[in-house]
Fold this sequence. Notes:
Largest sheet: 7 strands, antiparallel
Strand content: 25-35%
CATH superfamily: MM3350-like
Radius of gyration: 14 Å
Order of helices and strands: EEHEEEEE
Amino acid sequence: MQTYILKVVPSEFPNCVRVFEIGAEQSLLSLHEAIASEFKVTGEQPHAFFLSGDFLDAASAFAGTPAGGGVTGIVRLSSLDLTKGMRFGYAFDYQAEDGLYVEVIDLAAGKAGESYPRVVSREGELPEPEA
């Protein structure tokens, strides 16, 4: 099974880095759920991936709904022609013009018996939310 190694960095907190490994046949929704869980996104949020890297570029957006609707539950990573070095945006808060950046850092052969997506490394922490 082919996997992608993806570095995810919040645009506002560049010292907080997470690296994920996800199966090529998994959906953008699976990636959204992994990122949201790791970065402790609370509540049901709409989300979108912007393949151009521009959070205002609707033409490159793949959007999903809190209930799992939208195209992110259908679109497999393997269908996106992701290449090493490619960088794209991920947003879960449509009120902001920024979000997180996802960079393809490698393609790998998945390990039998391993569960994907998974976090393979963590660096830095997000600040505590203000009360």
